[in-house]
Each structure stands twice: as C-alpha cells, then as structure tokens.
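hey so i finally got around to running the thing on that chain from the lab meeting. sorry it took forever, my laptop kept dying and i had to restart like 3 times. anyway pasting the input first so we r on the same page abt which one it is
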Amino acid sequence: MINAVGCVPIGVYQWDQFETYRDKIKGLCLTKEQTNTIESNIGKDIKNNIWESKFDFLQNKECVELNNWLTHTTQDFLKEINGKTFNFGITESWAHVTRQNGYHGPHRHTWSTWSGIFYVEADKPDSGKNTFWNYYNLPQVPEYSFFNEEFYFDFVPGRLIIFPSTMLHDAKPYSGNQRIVIAYNGVCI
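ok and heres what got predicted. didnt touch it at all, straight out
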C-alpha cells in the first residue's frame, strides 16, 4: 500500500510469511543484543537505551528470507511509484532493541536513496512511534499546518515502512520493556 506524507510516497507493506520467521528473527536480535550499545558508532548522541547492531544485520543466515522479501518489496514499491523497474540493493542493515525510555532522535540517512523500518515486536505498540516529517520547510502558520505536521504509522509486527532516506524521522521515547525493529538503507543499482 502506498501512503503519502505531503507529496512524498511512503510504502506500507505486511509480510505474509512473518509468523513463520518471527521467532527466528526475534531470537537473533535478542541473542546479539548488547544492552545500551551502539555497535555502528553512528549518532551516539541522539540515541538512548538502544542496542544498535553493526550495519550488516541482514547478512545473518537467519535473515535470508527477510532480506529477500525486503529487497523485492522495495523494488516493487519503486516500480509502482515510478512506472519502471529498478534493481534495488540493500547496502546497510541493522537491528534495534529499544528498552524502557529508549529513543532515537531526529535524523536522516544521507548516503542512500530508500530506507525501510521493519517492525518485529513491541510489548507496548502505541509507544516509541517512528515519526516522519514533511520535506517542505515552510513557515509555521495555520494555513500550512498540513505541511508541518508529524506523521507516523502504527507498530504492527511484520509491517514494513519504506521511505526516502533523506526524510527526517525519529523514534519517540519508549515506555515498554522491549521494542525490536530492523532497518535498512539501499540504492538502485
């Protein structure tokens, strides 16, 4: 399904095979977790109480099916919005396990073209929302409120959100005990 933040297309897809692989993916994240550690060494000052893996997470053998689905789904999304086929490749991927009061401040992924966030599990799905902001930098006046609002998508296990990598986004503070997501960046090759 394609949504839009302002005029920007956002893909929202549900993996129909998620239940088959859920335990394997969740188990891998929890086994690799190093509490409150940013293994990527990127943006440490805007992250709190999060484990972030190195940027090769989808290369784990437990993630082959997920990696294939994410790649093909992103490629299909790009074809749908552009009307032509692109060969999309994931260049970086990582997992986040967010613990109570954890968050990830506003940021962009500037070295890729498309990014995705895949929701694995959250004991409080209404907390810690990923928020996206419109690209347009317009004055804060009432008649422009539709441009300046925050947008978010509900946390549903097995859901993928695809967005332009340079779109400003964050993860709000999480009030639950455990929230697991897998994210990626990629380019058309």
